[in-house]
Amino acid sequence: MTEIKKVIEVKGLVKRFGSFVANDHLTFDVYKGEIFGFLGANGAGKTTAIRILCGLSRPTSGTVTVAGIDAGRPEEIKKRIGYMSQRFSLYDDLTVNENIELYGGIYGMTMKEIRHRRAELLTRLSFSQYGDTLIGSLPLGLKQKLAFAVAVFHDPEIVFLDEPTSGVDPITRRQFWEMIYETASRGITVFVTTHYMDEAEYCDRVTIMSEGSIVALDSPAALRDRYNTATIEELFVKIARPKTETA
Amino acid sequence: MKRFMAFVKKEFLHIFRDYRTLIILFGIPAAQILIFGYAVRTDIKNASIAVLDNAHDEVSAELTLKLEASDFFTISNHLSSYDEIDVTFKQGKIKAVVIFPEKMAATLTREGSATVGIIADGSEPNAASLVTGYTTGILNDYSSGLTQHLTASLPVINPEVRMYFNPNLESHYMFVPGVITLILILISALMTSVAIVREKEFGTMEVLLVSPLRPWQIIIGKVAPYFFLSLVNVIVILLMAWYVFGLPVRGSIALLIAECMLYILLGLSIGILVSASVDKMENAIFISFMALMLPSLLLSGFIFPIENMPKVYDYVSMILPPRWFVEIIRAIMIKGAGFAYIWKETLILIIMTLFFIGLSAGKFKVRLGEGGR
Predict the structure, then answer these.
(1) Is the ipTM here above 0.90?
(2) Which of B196, B255, B337, B366 could form a disulfide with B341 if both were Cys (CB 3.0 to 4.6 A apart)?
(3) The domain that contains B71 carries what CATH number?
């Protein structure tokens, strides 16, 4: 039982905004090195949950532990995680090198460390010739890959990806997932929200949220078996449809 | 601290990369100072004036001679009646008329004083104030000579100055203080609010908030470079005003810089408040412009003297920081006043600063901490 390390533990998480319950008693664990998918329609409560896990918002009740640290100490959590949002998060008017220096610096890395790992990273991505190029002049696909590389540049324990592939072409999405696999194989846990159902199939385990609650949580294969559907997409339509047609 | 410095460095990179804005920021005040510096000549030579001598006695003759003898004036017209004044001015031939009263020497001996009228062409405010200044100087010089002879204690010839066409001459003195006030509001409030809102609009603010940087570090890191930039700009403006325009700082430069820093801080806190209230850059620009720039320009007394405004605007201008700041720097630069004369205005600015810092701190906590889902 203790051989797999839990990096995220959530028990009875509730988040209310006035009378609106955005997260209704969520309970789940995420294990080290796994790719954990978070699915749900818009307004299902995904973003609220991810904001709490990232230390941006406090739970109304329940216990949340991220990287072994209670959600009551968000500053400590923030040092141990990486984050990439659906919106592009690098600075267009800075060069590739400067962006990396900025994020490395913010996460407390020394300049020597940054230089060393930056050279390594750019070589691995075959980006070396772009070091002094302004981000703004790179194509979107490259930017997105670079944004992900920057999000895990400081070797966080967990990286949160909030719909990272929205608006990206299929080839880049494919390459992006290869990067996710490569990251997970380095022992970095990947917590990813998506609304591409085919991407859910790439995850080790997926959680499906609807109206603030978790309606299913298991590996994609186990879920397909249990609900007797051919794809996660079918499954999603089957179980995640809101009971009331307000959405 | 290292994290913070990495962040500040990035902010400077943004600023220096956007060199167009930088050129505008330093270019506008430079251009204004240069234009005013060169368009406005600070010395007069051989300015044409007219004399209306109603006295025709030894005093008026001597004074006329003194005026003529100075390098400043050439007496081009000798008028014989008041009616000629208007015509001569309208012809634009003269900058001023000096009027000696009837029986000047007699009055001077009997009453110990006499009044000389000086009417200047107010359509050229700078020239007018210089001409009256020099004329007054010559009159005072003459009367202090008399004073020694008569051992009277007061200057005996009182110049009575009137402006023709434009009675409000003060505006050009306001120029450099006005430019400083405007530029500081522009950089500190407008540019910071835009810089912060840009992060929100592009989604990079989210990434920063998830990083180990504390929210206050993000805010301070964003505004610190603008604080620095504003100060540099103030110094550039002062140096240019001095070298080009010949306008020295009569009071304490340290006090002036300290007051500028206070005002920058105030501008920054307003900028932070604006950025906490809006999510789009256009809105930040719009609010900063409408709520700060225009009132600063129109109501601070920079262009239009507050004394000439309806009372309502006078009251409205009281809640505007530029009004007090213009008064402060005018007092320090032009009047050479010390802190004792401007502590009230300074206190008002300090209270305003604390108020805005408090307001924006509260607002930011709400917006960033728990805003959105």
Answers:
(1) no
(2) B337
(3) 3.40.1710.10
